[in-house]
Design brief:
Layout: H1 6-30, H2 47-55, E1 62-64, H3 70-76, H4 80-87, E2 111-113, H5 121-135, E3 141-146, H6 153-164, E4 169-175, E5 178-179, E6 182-183, E7 204-208, H7 212-229, E8 233-238, H8 256-266, H9 268-278, H10 284-306
Length: 326
């Protein structure tokens, strides 16, 4: 790949660093210090998919994510301080501290939110695409899903209806090789994942999910075709999560050597840095400046969120039921 668009690549680099440093803060500070209950699902290693895919869409397009959705949220423009506040259960979080790590959402940015039930966001995306088609607003709906979600009935029902009704929906599969602890070769009878939607007439494409520009180009083409034809697209991004399924995962299903070797060879941030530097698009001092600046930004957002107030006791009674109209 010839690296030429300096402004775009630096923008992508900035967002990938923002995602990485945010999740490292969750892993290294919030979780060990018990600043939230339960665990959090990190996408360290998958930043290129989130950034390349989301930035290939238009601001008006809908994005609906999964339990592993911090990267999608950040790429879509959600505020880091409010995200930290939500994860830590603070009143100023996106869901007023009630949703936590797996329920971040901001309808004003058309980030319809994360959904922790595997595969269940795909029919929701089909519904969003149906609404866009009926309204004639030219939007597409993009649903992120893992390769494990391809085995759920929800995905196949969504793909069938999306094709049957010619809906402008993008199914974006992040193949990180493990469905919780189950490797791909033990969970899927068909290893050619891009063929999983062929039965519904939806052609698939497989993409290197560790190279942000390849992701961006693939989603740009798919989104344009989906928007023009009002018909679903299906893309599979080969990627890898360097962390466990969640922050409490002991990772007994793979060796530390495997994860370390994958990190050394395939870290998408390092790949982009090397390409920009080797192509003389960006000098090394610029990458260092970006790293220092984004790390300081993430640290400041965390410190500010840590000082935010807890919900009041009476807040437990708000937002329990939908408000009825007249």
């Amino acid at each position: 790949m010839a690296v030429k668009d300096r402004e775009r690549l630096l923008h992508f680099y900035e967002d990938m660093l923002r995602i990485r440093f945010f999740e490292e803060q969750v892993r290294d500070v919030l979780y060990p210090q018990r600043l939230f209950r339960g665990s959090s699902h990190l996408a360290i290693g998958q930043e290129a998919v989130a950034v390349g895919a989301v930035h290939a869409l238009q601001a008006e397009d809908y994005v609906i994510s999964t339990h592993r959705g911090h990267g999608h949220a950040i790429a879509k423009g959600l505020d880091l301080q409010r995200m930290f506040a939500e994860i830590m259960g603070r009143r100023t979080g996106y869901d007023r501290g009630k949703g936590g790590s797996m329920h971040l959402a901001d309808a004003s940015l058309n980030f319809i939110g994360e959904n922790p039930v595997v595969g269940s966001n795909t029919p929701m995306a089909a519904g969003l695409a149906l609404a866009a088609k009926l309204e004639g607003n030219g939007r597409v709906a993009a649903a992120f899903l893992g390769e494990g979600a391809l085995n759920t009935g929800a995905f196949h029902e969504a793909a069938n209806l999306a094709a049957l009704w010619s809906l402008p929906v993008l199914f974006l599969c992040e193949n990180n090789l493990y469905a919780i602890s189950v490797p791909l070769d033990k969970s899927s009878a068909l290893q050619d994942l891009e063929r999983r939607a062929e039965a519904y007439g939806i052609p698939g494409r497989r993409v290197n999910g560790m190279r942000v520009m390849e992701v961006y180009d693939a989603v740009s083409s798919a989104a344009e075709a989906t928007r023009e034809r009002s018909f679903p697209s299906f893309l599979v991004f080969d990627t890898y999560r360097f962390e466990g399924h969640h922050t409490s995962d002991k990772q007994t299903y793979r060796t530390q050597e495997e994860a370390l070797e994958e990190f050394r060879q395939r870290d998408p941030i390092h790949i982009l840095e090397f390409e920009m530097i080797d192509d003389h698009t960006v000098p090394i001092p610029t990458t260092i400046e970006y790293r220092d600046r984004i790390r300081a930004e993430v640290d400041a957002a965390f410190e500010a969120a840590l000082a935010e107030p807890w919900p009041a006791p009476e807040d437990a009674l708000t937002g329990v039921y939908a408000e009825g109209g007249e």
